[in-house]
């Protein structure tokens, strides 16, 4: 297998995704503290922890009170285990070929595995038999999401097969909620009614099952009655709440760049592909070397501002024109103090970047809170999840570990 090696030296790239592990620990502590005493918290670190770096985010979440880890793909689950992280690890998304290749190692590592079909059950059983171990399985029930999981009419059959298979240990039932962030709808209640009815029948058929888990971040924050034995929390750990909450959640990632060029233009100057923006008056434009190849959503063109840290203080500058592959243009205004090399925060967290970037000029003026991934998501008509996970590999990650007191 060949592994691609980035051609660019990250030391010479102007863009940075700054990850604050202390914020992840803080957010986890906030969420864990809101749970019932009997409810455990699974930190979902799929998709490289939503772009924040899986291993660092996992350890930060465990420091904040998580006691489980969840990763969609088996390879990620194995990476967590091989990194020496000794907590229950759950994985749920695999095709038959991946299963045949990785299930024996997963079972040997005591990774907990979702099953949602007869074929999945057979694959896990076969791998467990080869490993001479019992696999710990979570039976997934499709209560209306329409993705993975067994349909209600097939659940009892799978439960009986699991009970009768000496290679398998059925430790949990679970489902995924399709609309937990739609607080005014009854979809979630209908899904839970289906889930509870099936679990009751399943218990009568095969005996007690130790764990139930149904709550994603939205349900964790809005439906305490759905916490059950375990909640699976993802986006909330990284500072974004899909539903209103009183918890103090702090964005854990900031995307920064620098101004590459400033130029004065007259009224009538168009900007970018398609000439979708024209300067109404004379102004100063700033060129910033970050674009959709770095993860900015082109659909947000002309609908969001960035924060420029000038020597005279912070200022907001609207992005104008079409977002290009490698660059954007912002309207600094005719009286802006911005210069080349000034730091630009594309999105971030209040106080997350108080320490100036290396080589940045000292700022003596007012400080402002930067835009967030939520602002970019709103501008692009999407969700913060997509903004965070879309940052490309050519954006170097700068990880900031929490101070000793923050991790306590």
TrEMBL record:
Pathway this chain belongs to: Amino-acid biosynthesis; D-alanine biosynthesis; D-alanine from L-alanine: step 1/1
Cofactor(s) the record lists: pyridoxal 5'-phosphate
Gene3D superfamilies, per the entry: Alanine racemase, Lyase, Ornithine Decarboxylase, Chain A, domain 1
Annotated active site: 46 (proton acceptor), 273 (proton acceptor)
UniProt domain Alanine racemase C-terminal: residue ranges: 252-400
Assigned EC number: 5.1.1.1
Domain of life: Bacteria
Cross-referenced InterPro entries: Ala_racemase, Ala_racemase/Decarboxylase_C, Ala_racemase_C, Ala_racemase_N, Ala_racemase_pyridoxalP-BS, PLP-binding_barrel
Any one Gene Ontology molecular-function term assigned to this protein's record: alanine racemase activity
Keyword Hydrolase in record: no
Binding positions for substrate per the UniProt entry: 147, 325
Residues found modified as N6-(pyridoxal phosphate)lysine: 46
Family designation: Belongs to the alanine racemase family.
Protein name: Alanine racemase
Organismal lineage: Bacteria, Bacillati, Actinomycetota, Actinomycetes, Micrococcales
């Amino acid at each position: 297998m060949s592994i691609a090696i980035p051609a660019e030296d990250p030391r010479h790239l102007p863009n940075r995704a700054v990850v604050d592990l202390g914020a992840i620990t803080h957010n986890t502590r906030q969420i864990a503290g809101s749970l019932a005493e009997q409810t455990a918290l699974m930190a979902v670190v799929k998709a490289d922890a939503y772009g924040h770096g899986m291993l660092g985010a996992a350890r930060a979440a465990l420091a904040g009170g998580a006691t489980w880890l969840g990763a969609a793909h088996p390879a990620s689950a194995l990476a967590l285990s091989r990194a020496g992280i000794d907590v229950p690890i759950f994985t749920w998304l695999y095709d038959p070929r991946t299963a045949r290749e990785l299930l024996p190692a997963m079972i040997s590592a005591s990774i907990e595995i979702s099953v949602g079909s007869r074929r999945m059950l057979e694959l896990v059983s076969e791998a467990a038999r080869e490993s001479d171990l019992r696999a710990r399985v979570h039976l997934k029930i499709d209560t209306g999401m329409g993705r993975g999981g067994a349909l209600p009419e097939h659940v009892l059959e799978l439960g009986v097969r699991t009970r009768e298979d000496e290679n398998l240990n059925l430790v949990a039932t679970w489902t995924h909620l399709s609309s937990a962030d739609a607080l005014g709808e009854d979809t979630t209640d209908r899904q839970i009614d289906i889930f509870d009815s099936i679990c009751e029948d399943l218990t009568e058929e095969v005996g007690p099952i130790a764990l139930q888990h149904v709550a994603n971040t939205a349900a964790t924050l809005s439906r305490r009655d759905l916490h059950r034995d375990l909640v699976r929390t993802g986006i909330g750990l990284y500072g974004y709440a899909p539903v209103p909450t009183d918890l103090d959640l702090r964005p854990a990632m900031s995307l920064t760049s620098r101004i590459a060029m400033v130029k004065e233009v007259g009224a009538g100057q168009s900007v970018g592909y398609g000439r979708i923006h024209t300067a109404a008056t004379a102004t100063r434009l700033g060129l910033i070397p970050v674009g959709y190849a770095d993860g900015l959503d082109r659909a947000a063109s002309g609908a969001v501002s960035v924060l420029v840290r000038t020597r005279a203080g912070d200022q907001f500058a609207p992005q104008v024109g079409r977002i290009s592959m490698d660059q954007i243009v912002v309207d600094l205004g005719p009286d802006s103090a911005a210069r080349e090399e000034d730091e630009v925060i594309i999105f971030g967290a209040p106080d997350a970047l108080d320490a100036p970037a290396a080589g940045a000029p000292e700022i003596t003026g007012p400080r402002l809170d930067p835009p967030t991934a939520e602002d970019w998501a709103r501008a692009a008509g999407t969700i913060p999840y997509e903004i965070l996970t879309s940052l490309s590999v050519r954006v170097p990650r700068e990880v900031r570990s929490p101070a000793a007191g923050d991790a306590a």
